Amino acid sequence: MGDTTSIVKKENPGVPSVSLLNDCEIRFCELYARGEAPYAGNPTKCYKEAFNTDDPTCGMKAYMLLARSDVQKHLTDIMSVEFDETAYIKEFVKTNMMSIIEEMAHKSFTDRKGKAISPAPSRSVAVSAAKVLMDLYKIREPNANELNINNKDGGNITFNVIVPESKKKELANEE
Question: CA-based diameter of the chain, in Å?
């Protein structure tokens, strides 16, 4: 039987061989190509995690695995598939901000003695989360104007001026 870590089938002489990697090798490739820190691009850590081993020769085995043409092809295939990480992160942030808004907008807190604490700080957190969502989805207040002051040293100040509805109507009537 020999090596069971990979099976190579040869279909036709003119057609390239198709390689089937085992589950550990596939996991190694996924960690190496798309893993988060400390795995991405670190073959030794990926090998230890994928093969669930602490063998002192993991580094050598990882580099030998990377040198195989079937593993190289699988890594190329993984990296060529587009992954919209921005959409994932946007959805993650949206979900978390919505839960923060829901929790903080209606929750009441007490101090160590059981006395009710003002809801202002928790409501402030809810408002901040709502602002993050507005920035995330590029929602602007319709009556807001910005005044930018740019400093030659790179320090910028932005003032958001919000015109109240009553003043806006008064200004329109004067014209």
Answer: 93
